[in-house]
Design brief:
Layout: H1 2-24, H2 33-56, H3 62-70, H4 76-102, H5 109-112, H6 129-151, H7 157-179, H8 185-195, H9 197-202, H10 205-225
Helix pairs in contact: 1-2, 1-4, 1-8, 2-7, 3-4, 3-6, 3-10, 4-8, 6-7, 6-10, 8-10
Amino acid sequence: MRKYVAEFIGTCVLTLFGCGAAAISGGIEGVLGILGIALAFGLAVVAMAFAIGDISGCHINPAISLGVFIAGGMTVGDLIGYIVSQFLGGAAGAGLLYIIEIMTDSVDVSSNGLGANGYGDFSYVGINLGGALLAETLMTFVFVLVVLAVISKAENSIIGGVVIGLTLTFVHIFGIPLTGTSVNPARSLGPAIFSGVEYLVQSWVFIVGPFVGAALAAVIFKLLYSDSAE
């Protein structure tokens, strides 16, 4: 159970601090801006990689766990355990953020969406449904491909968390104006639950897109890194 507890804690921290940085600072036009919010997500991954990496591998993302599974790196049982723990962690992180926000005088939960992802009216640039799905698929593909490449070699373990965290940062820099950047179904569903029906209705995009992107990344990874590859 230690690795499932670790995944719960890691996903909770990522959601609380990443989404919290976006929501409490005022979003894209707020104090932190795109770069600050992106760094919050990236640094959360770096911190958790060093905190729980030796216990669970620090997936803290169902899309990563799916990619690792398809690439042959974990069992079905662990995949289920990881994903359940991650979704629960994401909900817990969003719940804690909600509690913190309602205790403030100037943060409006209904207007900032707890850092929830969205398209259309909930996108800074007004990206439509198809664009959001494509963007999330592509961003997750890149992110998970890097993760799989990093964890495939033991010698990368020392800097692996930093590389993965920086990759998540640059993905967020690109994706925040589009969808708020998910690439992580647990990080998306948690805030959507507490943000209202409007966000919850759209949340399937930020589950399907990352899972499709992760699956594609795992297939490409196996082709590129297979023993027969030239």
